[in-house]
Amino acid sequence: MSFLLDGRVRHDQPDWGHRTGIEPVLLAASIPARPGERVLEGGTGTGAALLCLAHRVPGIVGLGLEIDPAMATLASTNAAANAMDTLDFLVTDLTTWRTEARFDHAMANPPWHAPATTASPHARKDRAKRAAPGLFAAWAAALTRPLRHRGTLTLVIAAAHADAALAAIGAGGCGSLALLPLWSRTGNPARLVLLRGVKGGRGPFRLLPGLVLHERDGGFTAEAQCILRGGAALPL
User: pTM of the prediction?
Assistant: First the structure.
């Protein structure tokens, strides 16, 4: 048994495969959802991001898409364990999925490791981390398609791939792009970034004040603790 948000959210994970880090918690904190709004997540895994978002904003209606049936089943089990009956999880390939439903927000923590990197011995972990050519464009298009006009698309991605991901978000039909750096420590280059686009948005690109995650001694900063343990929002 494991937990997120300092024990506030139960989040069981398999002994095998990809392990949840801080990325889905930060992603969930950045979504500007309100009660009753519909949120779509691509590559939901065991549901960590939707669970954290539903804890912060009770009453959202969430749909997580996951290609791995075992992971999707565990995500459903996690939602039930937290009495979050407005969350649902569907086994499907995001890039081929189609729906007539409309969503207010979409989010993802997409794979980003290059195909040429060393493969993980665990097939599920490898699939969760490795990005095939054109993946960003395919995911951005698939997540933008069911968004309502002025709906938001948010990604958490390695900073090294921010340019490709921003281009994909823009090509998918989102504008008013924004980037928020996530620094491991003050003075270090950002290793992660949050990216935001608005469907049909026409505003200028915004480079936002970032978040420092760790103190010099390795512990989380007070600001990061409020998000990662307290469940606070991280506005973009």
Answer: 0.91
